[in-house]
């Protein structure tokens, strides 16, 4: 008969190795949150750029000495 194989005893400073956990869907939550934050920042930047462009055009008109700088919308 052969001796049954015994596991070697761990050293006193060694930690027991745990089996790797399977990846879950939690790692996508961070990616989705980052995507949402990026879309919000892009939207705010787009709105701010349009608002500043309109303010700049109004200031250019007023600085040129004109008194009627209102935006005229076409009749529908």
First-last Cα distance: 101 Å
How do the SSEs run, as a string of H and E? H
Class of secondary structure makeup? mainly alpha
Cα-atom radius of gyration: 33 Å
Number of helices: 1
Q: Can you count the beta strands?
A: 0
Portion in helices: 40-55%
What low-confidence regions span 5 or more consecutive residues with pLDDT below 50? none
Relative strand content: under 5%
Mean pLDDT: 80
Largest sheet: none
- Write down the overall geometry: rod-shaped
What labels describe this entry?
76 residues; 0% strand; mainly alpha; 1 helix
Structure description:
Helices cover 50% and strands 0% of the residues. The chain is mainly alpha-helical and 76 residues long.
Sequence-ordered SSE layout with sheet pairings:
Elements: H1 26-63
Condensed summary:
The chain is 50% helix and 0% strand. The protein has 76 residues and is mostly helical.
């Amino acid at each position: 008969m052969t001796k049954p194989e015994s596991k070697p005893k761990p050293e006193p400073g060694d930690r027991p190795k745990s089996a790797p956990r399977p990846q879950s869907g939690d790692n996508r939550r961070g990616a989705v949150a980052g995507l949402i934050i990026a879309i919000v920042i892009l939207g705010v930047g787009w709105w701010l750029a349009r608002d500043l462009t309109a303010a700049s055009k109004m200031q250019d008109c007023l600085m040129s000495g004109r008194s009627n700088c209102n935006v005229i919308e076409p009749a529908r």
